[in-house]
Amino acid sequence: MTNTQSYFYNIIPVHINISEYQREQILLQFPAPELPSGESRFLIDQETHGNRVRTRLLLNDFTVQRTKTNKEFLKMRFSNNAGNINAKMWDNQGAVERSIPLLEQHAVFDIEGKVEEFNGYKSLTIDSLTPVEGEVNPFALLPYTEQNIEDLTVELFSYLHELGTPYQEIALSAMQHFWEQFSIRPAAKGYHHNYLGGLLKHTVGLMRFARYILRFEENHYKATMKLIQVVEKAHKNELWAKIQAPDDVQQLVWKNTIDHLYNMLHGMMQYKDSTPNYDLLMTSILFHDIGKLLEYDHAGKTDDTLKFLYPTATIDGYGNRKQAGITMDELGVMIGHIPYGVLILSKIIEKEEIQISVDAIHHMSHCILCHHGLPEWGSAVKSPGSIEGYLIHIVDYLDSRYENTETVK
């Protein structure tokens, strides 16, 4: 079975040549997350005023307010995978006092109420809310990628299976430990890939760029220059569209990017006598954002990665935290995904007793540490110190911005 498509303004070819049996084996070992059925998706905009509803929602925030007659009521903002839902609860028979402790302690609720419409805006008036205990499916509560997660999964592992020893062992070992969480985690809170499945999609995107530069073009400098030229053309199209429709609020994705890309290309030139290590770069890409397993929090996130890194640590208090929408993890943000990536890479190599040169470990760690490119953008080193270091930053930079041009996220 050959799946042929393209990426990045149809410039980058994407060839996945595997058998149907291989596809089935990948998905058997690394299953895609279970998505909610269409029938279970509550869309308030499709409801009629006065409808009675029962649904499961994620609480984002709440406040206690007062009516003009000085009566208390709860104003709440919920969400599900279709978006935000405004709601209120009147203080009938002490409902406000009874509900506040529940709202402070829990994040997921089964609610019953009625659809209201005022000036074209729909909301819920809630009669009762019941906290949901135990595991929840985050895909029923949070936005997730619209792309086929099974296809992204198969593409990722088709690339990993191409790698040689010891890189394939490192990559597959990481996925065997973390796949369930890796497959659902967002890649950001706001700017790009800020939805469930975003980390998987972003990682595959970087690999597509890297494969194009090192496998589909004869020279990685020429390939990089071609990509920059594509960005220049895309930016000109953005500017022309803005001239024609100045009131359009559409963001200029490629604004202030071209000079930076050329500066990075210039930095690459000091390593023109170095041959990029494809396997090392692809493995580094897998780990470059894997620290986001710890840096971000949301309903449905488990503590498996934390326990993997710190097996003797107690996490009782942390494990009882309230989880809701996509936020920065209260502990994870203290370290950040970049240092976490190096810690996870080192732990995998140690735990699986993988034989690899200390030079390769440092080169992969350097790629993870420098993938943001500049210290003011979060890079842990002053500037990339290898050809792979420059390449991982360039492909990360391109993919994180290109995602904001796609119609299907």
TrEMBL record:
Q: Which domain of life is it from?
A: Bacteria
Q: Which GO terms describe its biological process?
A: rRNA 3'-end processing
What keywords does the record list, in alphabetical order? Hydrolase
Every copy of the HD domain together lies at 257-399
Instruction: Give the molecular function GO annotations.
Output: hydrolase activity
Q: Which CDD domains did the record assign?
A: HDc
Q: Per the record's keyword annotation, is Hydrolase included, yes or no?
A: yes
InterPro entries cross-referenced by the UniProt entry? HD/PDEase_dom (IPR003607), HD_domain (IPR006674), YhaM_exoribonuc/phosphodiest (IPR050798)
Can you say what this protein is called? HD domain-containing protein
Instruction: Please tell me the species this chain comes from.
Output: Oceanobacillus bengalensis
